[in-house]
Amino acid sequence: MEPRIMVKIIGGALIIGSCTLSGMTAAASYRDRVAAIRDFRRRLKIMADEIRFRKGILADALKKAGEGDGPAGSFFREAAVYVETMDAPSAWDLACDGEEASTAMKEEEIQAIRWLGKQLGMSDVEGQLEDIERVDSRLAMIEEKAEELRAKNEPLFKRIGLLAGAAIVILLI
Amino acid sequence: MGYTAEENRKRTGDELAEFLGRVNQRLYKAVRNLGRERGSLQEIRLRAERPVSLYLGNRELYVTEDGGLTEQYREGRIYEKKELEAIFSAISENSLYAYQDEIKNGYITIKGGHRVGIAGKVVLENGNEIRHIKDISALNIRVAGQVKNCGYKVLPYIIKNDRDIYNTLIVSPPGCGKTTLLRDLTRLLSDGVEKLFRGVNVGLVDERSEIAACYKGIPQNDVGRRTDVLDGCPKARGMLMLLRAMSPQIIVTDEIGGSGDGEAVKNVANAGVRLLTTAHGYCDEGWTDLRREARELIEEGIFQKIVVLDNSRGPGTVKDIMDLTRQGKTNRTSAISAIKAQGARPWNPE
User: Fold this and answer.
1) Which residues of B have a CB under 8 Å from any CB of A?
2) In this complex, how many residue pairs, one in chain A and one in chain B, have their CB atoms less than 8 Å apart?
């Protein structure tokens, strides 16, 4: 095979590959967002159970919620470390900053989570559970919307990546 | 032989300073600035919109802006309500809900067995049930003061043999050292005393967390190696729970006299388990100043020994030890004269 054709085929494959990858990445952000919210809600439930049944201190409840693998685990583990040295709202806020920078969560859910920090550890068990419930309800609504977006956009972006790559290759040829 | 009262107070003062380091730097500095006087620190009182006071015996010092100490009220640094709330939040490890039941009682116990009293707006539910205290306006950090070995002189008069004791009631007005003596006797009976008493299993019902001062389930005061603590449990129920579950040889509890206590005490006595407890009261011949439940128990012959304390030479002065094992409800034996002959002194003569 001629070297020129060889270069064209390899170049074309690279373009299609990279465009597909971009599409997959964009699609994954929708999937990861849903997974992160879902995992966060699961851990929030663990934290609520710790408060409800064990009535242990906040640092222990956060540690327990942060156990195991999952996209939101690091949030709770970090908050558990921060709360040992500062007040609960500041610790929660700092963990939110880290989450904003590092995970698939979007501003909308981060804001909902951030609200909880203002109330954390500042009321009785019933008050804490009510606040957690409130945030969980808000996150449930956001998760539902995020799931709809994922169902619509995930396959779309996967296909768009491939098709865009193919279109570019055709145009270049 | 353990620590002296002064050494003990110094040690607890150091522990408290370390704790305050995590709560508020100014208070930490103030307690450190006490230097050798840390051992005399009894209370730290924080009030919203007023300076913080440190009580050392009869002296009252105020904390200045830079954590110094002054006797002048006006030089004290005013603490805002917000700061007080932040301090309380830090004291409760950012977990007010975890201390909810204690807060309802008006205090929480912190590491080291120190007690933080709380004043503020009480939130009621169902008419008169306390749900919570909000708008915290004052905190009183009371430094724990376990006085080890203060029970040595009383112990010989309440033991029957090296494995058994008499049912004993300690009676005094408030502030005379009932709980301090009870705590040390608990430790001695649990650990044992060479040539005098072999240690036995002791069940302790610590309804107000005053005796063992448990923090996260661990006694902060030394109540002995064979002592099982039921912390925060109502006395009457706790005594029966221990009786059934932990098979102790001695059950210890503080301040009997509430409704239902008498029945529980009788159950304990009938089960062959010995009882060591206290009651508020001024001890006269007719027991008129004792609460009805406690008086009835004495009249029914449940207690064989009654230790009477007063404040005549400082908290912990043993005024009398009554032996009711013989006929007559107030047959005072030679026990007290023997104690006096030994030169019994109050353990805290301040």
Assistant:
1) 86, 89-90, 92-98, 100, 131-132
2) 48
Q: Are A51 and A61 in contact (CB under 8 A)?
A: yes
> Which residues on B lie below 8 Å from A55 (Cβ)?
97-98, 100
Strand B115-125: give its sheet, edge to edge. B69-70, B59-63, B53-56, B41-47, B129-142, B115-125, B107-109
Query: Is B93's CB within 8 Å of A55's CB?
Result: no
Angstrom distance (rounded) from CA B277 to CA B171? 9
pLDDT digits (tens, 9 = 90+) for B165-224: 999 999 988 878 899 999 999 999 999 998 899 999 999 999 988 899 998 889 989 999
- Full-model pTM: 0.70
Distance, in Å, from the CA atom of B148 to the CA atom of B4, rounded to the nearest integer, reads 7
Residue closest to B189 by CA, chosen among B241, B235, B226, B231: B226
Kind of pairing between the strands at B59-63 and B69-70: antiparallel
Q: What is the pLDDT of residues A44-63, one digit of tens each?
A: 999 999 999 988 899 999 99
Two tokens, residue B53 = 């006071």
User: With contacts defined as CB-CB under 8 Å, which chain B residues touch A87?
Assistant: 86, 89-90, 94
